[in-house]
Protein: ribonucleoside-diphosphate reductase
Amino acid sequence: MTMSSGVPARVETSETEVLITWGEAGTTAAGLAEMLSTALTVALRSGVPAYPLVEELLGLRFVPHGRTGDPLVPFASSVADHVARHLAIRHLTPEERRKLGVFVAADSPWPDAYTQAPDA
Structure:
């Protein structure tokens, strides 16, 4: 994925692991992404519920932000927001996602609504 600023980022989640790749190896961004990946992975493996993790990261705004190139999360307000949305999709129920304002095409009778940019 490349955010609107042109900074490459990739987010992958599984039941017990979060992988975030952001920026070039050896940069501050890459180190911070690896640190967040490790912290979230340890939390999930230790039994921390995903809901509070998602709740804290969701909506954080910083560069890079915008289009992601990721079909699951086409827009994000930051890399942290992108990660939160991936965790929500993988770990939360549709009801929990709705409560947090995380919508995916599978939850909607209007799947095309999630392929358009939100109003700024």
Remarks:
- The CA atoms of residues 74 and 118 lie 10 Å apart.
- The longest strand covers residues 9-13.
- The radius of gyration is 14 Å.
